[in-house]
Design brief:
single chain; alpha/beta; two-stranded antiparallel ribbon; 10 strands; globular
């Protein structure tokens, strides 16, 4: 049984996205925080995400030379989408073929992603039952909120950025009751961000 880890960037006032989705506040120049994030996403046997996030990532990571590209390309993916397998041909192949940049190792994994279109809790249970390193869940905000609301997250890895947005998309807004978390560790970075790791109790 493998854990489901939700890794999200979050503002100090609890938002995981701008209202317009621009999210420039997430991308700072703190190389230590970035290296920590790369190590974190690399310690997974599966990456899962919602359909919009999947399409955006599938169009970007296969040709990217960013330090996140190796774990994002090489580790298998699962996309949660009501479209079914059609999502794999919606934009991924076309986007990659249209770009002149060289495909990076593992780029083909995006077209081979597992498509989860059944009940969220049942799909997660099936994925958790498989062996290996943890599952890391990415956004978007709606997908992450659904995981949280249904109690499917075992561990929260929150990179808290030193910015207050005032308004945006919250992570915990669909909880039916307060959620108790146990802090496992905390790490501060030179640029002001703090990694807070909690386990659901």
């Amino acid at each position: 049984m493998r854990d489901l880890i939700l890794k999200m960037s979050i503002s100090i006032d609890g938002f995981v996205s701008d209202l317009d989705g621009a999210n420039k506040w997430m991308f700072g120049s703190d190389q230590e925080a970035k290296a920590w994030s790369v190590e974190t996403v690399g310690n997974a046997s599966l990456h899962i995400m919602g359909s919009r996030t999947f399409l955006g990532m599938a169009a970007y990571w296969p040709t990217s030379t960013d330090m996140f590209a190796p774990p994002m390309n090489r580790i298998p993916k699962a996309v949660f989408s009501r479209q079914g397998p059609a999502i794999l041909t919606n934009k991924t192949t076309a986007s990659n073929d249209a770009q002149s940049a060289e495909l990076q190792p593992g780029a083909g994994s995006w077209a081979q992603a597992y498509v989860a279109s059944g009940d969220l809790a049942e799909e997660i249970a099936t994925l958790k039952a498989q062996g290996g390193k943890p599952i890391i869940a990415h956004g978007g905000a709606s997908f992450a909120r659904s995981l949280v609301a249904q109690g499917l997250v075992d561990q929260f890895v929150l990179l808290v950025h030193p910015v207050a947005l005032g308004k945006g998309l919250p992570l915990f807004s669909e909880l039916a009751a307060p959620m108790r978390l146990e802090r496992m560790s905390s790490k501060a970075f030179p640029g002001g961000a703090v990694a807070q790791i909690y386990r659901a109790t």
